[in-house]
Amino acid sequence: MKNFEFEQELDIAWCPGCGNFNIRTSLIEALQELELEPEQVVISSGIGQAAKMPQYIDVNYFNGLHGRALPVAVAIKAANPDLTVIAEGGDGDMYGEGGNHFIHNIRRNPNIAHLVHNNMVYGLTKGQASPTSKKSMQTPVQTSGVANEPFNPLAVALSLGATFVARAFSGYPEQTKEIIKQAITHEGYALVDIFHPCVTFNKINNFKWYKNNCYQLSADYNRNDFNMAMEKALDVEHFALGVLYQKQGQPTFEQQLPVYQNNQQPIVHRKRDLDKVSELLSL
Amino acid sequence: MKESISIVLSGEAGQGLQTIEEFLVASIAKEYYVFSTKDVMSRIRGGNNTVQIRVASEKIYASKQTIDLLFLLNDDAFERLRTKVTKGTVIFGKKGSVKASMLEECEASFNELDVEELAKEYGKIYANTILYGFIAGIMQLNKDFCLQQIKEKFQNKSDKIVETNQKAFTVGFEKGQQYTDLFNIKSLVNPAPLKVLDGTNAVGIGALAGGCNFIASYPMSPGTGVLTFLAKKVKDFDVLVEQAEDEIAALNMVIGSWYTGARGLATTSGGGFALMVEAVSLSGMTETPCVVHIAQRPGPATGLPTRTEQADLNLAVYAGHGEFPRVVFAPGNLEDAVLLTQKAFYIADKYQVPVFILTDQYLLDSMGQMEGITLDETYLQDSIIETESGYKRYQLTENGISPRGIPGFGSGLVKVDSDEHDEAGQITESFEVRVQMNDKRLRKRAGLLESFAEAELIGNADYNTLIVGWGSTYGVLKEYVETNTDSGVAFLYVKQVYPLHEKLSTYFEQADNIIVVENNATGQLANLLKIELNVSVNHSILKYNGEPFFVDEVAQRLQEVL
């Protein structure tokens, strides 16, 4: 089994007690249990506390710009489908700044796992509302309370045809790990919205709140039932944990690209032919 | 100005002007030198579009303002073209397509030609082919070649369509032969075989020659043509084409493709590039190469969407926050559109910097003839290394270039970060490392200047007046110095507009009079010459109404300051 842990001790920038620590452990264990090689895995992330994740895992990474992890991830996977690609970030990063990419990459169905740490607040910029913040939550900017309706990532993903939609809670690291493993092995776009507390800036949605407001999908839950998944996703009083929906056998973005129709070799490894280009200039 | 005849076809969008243009340019190119360009309105149907085809027995690379032969395909065209009509202009059109008072005022002559009427027995859609035949008849072009072209174009449709088009062509051709006295340009005895191409295809071919195998873009005129060109080459050249949800995604995708080892391109216009600016900065910081084709059109904002301007030089040179090296190429002719685009991919790869190809609507939409060129195989050589365990993506080096690995190739890990980082790609807030990394990135400038795309001096090397131009003003300025009787004038064509090499200074030192000609309102290259090389220009000749410079116009404006 390969080690995704660093040998030296890390200077981790998360607050003590932050939910990101548990998610990190879940992700590292998931990668190891899937027996992936660090050289074959790439994590693409944006900006925010969650997006620092690849810094703390010994793996290939592209830690780019706020909201832009998805376009980078999709391009990496398309240019070299042999790589295992994960896009990771927080709720502001993925649903706010990167909202347009979130929408359109669901439509593409790239074969990537999309892990979103959702703590319903902007932590790195000191506690402003995020797209998933509860209504009426008071912040230094939303001084009279959040007026906007919270964004529902699971319902949006389902409505756009996402082929894997799941929710996890960092307080249950074993389940989170299992869901991440399924997301990585799912053929197609896989969204995992991961609840976790922001111990510094979100005093409402704390560890206890998540424990009280989330419930487990039953053992006989049918993840292939779209209508049931939508019903669960739209319930914003009680939050279901587990894989809400999975549809297998849908063609992925890469599979549909003409460059891979008759040739599986990643484009980055193909030889280029200048003589053929010169022909375009002949009379 | 060289002796030439300018043929203008004017009609509405959707009337098939571009098909006639392609036919005519290809058949004219067999016997003459030719350059053609378009003036198109921003609408899908209707309006007033024109195609100008300029024919000469000497090489030409630009269009002229005045019209010799004008063909009106719809009634409301004339007013717009009025300023380009002289008393020597011969107009062909339906009866009444020009008001008698206007005709009298400009003293042009008018000949009745109703192609739709002539096409009646074949169907209205054959009017175009009749016009093609008519003009070919005036010029006495090789009829067999023209008929062959028609066959090639329509043979996928049906034999009947080919045959009817050929008949319609012949009707026009015979009628046109009555006017051969209107055309007095000598045809070439042994025409040199030249490739007929437009700027868009030249950039596209250059991209393929540079090993481009990934393009992500959001459509925006006039940059879209390159996306369309590569989309047609998907199968033959293994190009991965994706229409992104926006320009922001487009350039982030392109950067992601380079990180993985592909050679990616984004094509856009100034307005789209404005959205890509944050990703330009990302390329700078992560030292992930990228190539962007910026097809300029008049701005700001939506500006004049289908017209031309050279006003995004500042944007290209200063795009992105923070300080990092980049390269800006500005091809002015078809050969350079191919060669500099090819080179862009190599430079981006070698130095791990963003490289911009700055063209404009005029260069892209114009068709001309191109000399044979040799594509350089070395530009396809990747500078990617196989990594070893412990690989450091941002290793400090003397020339600023750290060996670049890609994920999955070798046993090392490729760690790239938009935060300031150490040699291993880990986030750092060390003041010392920050300075080391910033210096490392900026050290690449020296290498970029070593690879400087040389400027070209055209005209007498013993000049005292130096005209300076970049990009698509190449054609008019070259023609000016080639035909100018004052031998003390030369033209410096600057192809790499950033960074500028100090060896350019010697060109300026020799000149008593420096004139910069630019298709913008503020003299952006002139300003850059001052900043980069401390060169003060004596005159700036500027135009920014949405049209390119014309050869006759530029001559007149240069005379004013000479």
TrEMBL record, chain A:
Q: What is this protein called?
A: 2-oxoacid ferredoxin oxidoreductase
Keywords annotated in UniProt: Iron, Iron-sulfur, Magnesium, Metal-binding, Oxidoreductase, Thiamine pyrophosphate
Q: Record's superkingdom?
A: Bacteria
Q: Which GO terms describe its biological process?
A: cellular respiration
Per UniProt, what is one Pfam family of this protein? PFO_beta_C
Cofactor(s) the protein needs: Mg(2+); [4Fe-4S] cluster; thiamine diphosphate
Q: Which GO terms describe its molecular function?
A: iron-sulfur cluster binding; metal ion binding; oxidoreductase activity, acting on the aldehyde or oxo group of donors, iron-sulfur protein as acceptor; thiamine pyrophosphate binding
Q: Is Iron-sulfur set as a keyword in this record?
A: yes
**Domain Thiamine pyrophosphate enzyme TPP-binding: residue ranges:** 51-194
Instruction: Give the species.
Output: Desulfuribacillus alkaliarsenatis
Instruction: Name all Pyruvate ferredoxin oxidoreductase beta subunit C-terminal domain ranges.
Output: 198-261
From TrEMBL, chain B:
Q: Which residues form the Pyruvate/ketoisovalerate oxidoreductase catalytic domain?
A: 13-174
> Pyruvate flavodoxin/ferredoxin oxidoreductase pyrimidine binding domain spans which residues?
206-437
- Gene3D superfamilies hit by this protein: 3.40.50.920, 3.40.50.970, Pyruvate-ferredoxin oxidoreductase, PFOR, domain III
An example Gene Ontology molecular-function term: oxidoreductase activity, acting on the aldehyde or oxo group of donors
Q: Which SUPFAM superfamilies match?
A: Pyruvate-ferredoxin oxidoreductase, PFOR, domain III, Thiamin diphosphate-binding fold (THDP-binding), TK C-terminal domain-like
Q: Which UniProt keywords apply?
A: Oxidoreductase
What is an annotated GO biological process for this record, any one? Answer: response to oxidative stress
Is the keyword Ribosomal protein in the record? no
The answer to keyword Oxidoreductase applying to this record is yes
Q: Which domain of life is it from?
A: Bacteria
What NCBIfam families would the database entry show?
OAFO_sf
Instruction: Give the matching PANTHER family.
Output: 2-OXOGLUTARATE OXIDOREDUCTASE SUBUNIT KORA (PTHR32154:SF20), PYRUVATE-FLAVODOXIN OXIDOREDUCTASE-RELATED (PTHR32154)
Name of the protein described by the UniProt record: 2-oxoacid:ferredoxin oxidoreductase subunit alpha
Q: What is the lineage of its organism?
A: Bacteria, Bacillati, Bacillota, Desulfuribacillia, Desulfuribacillales
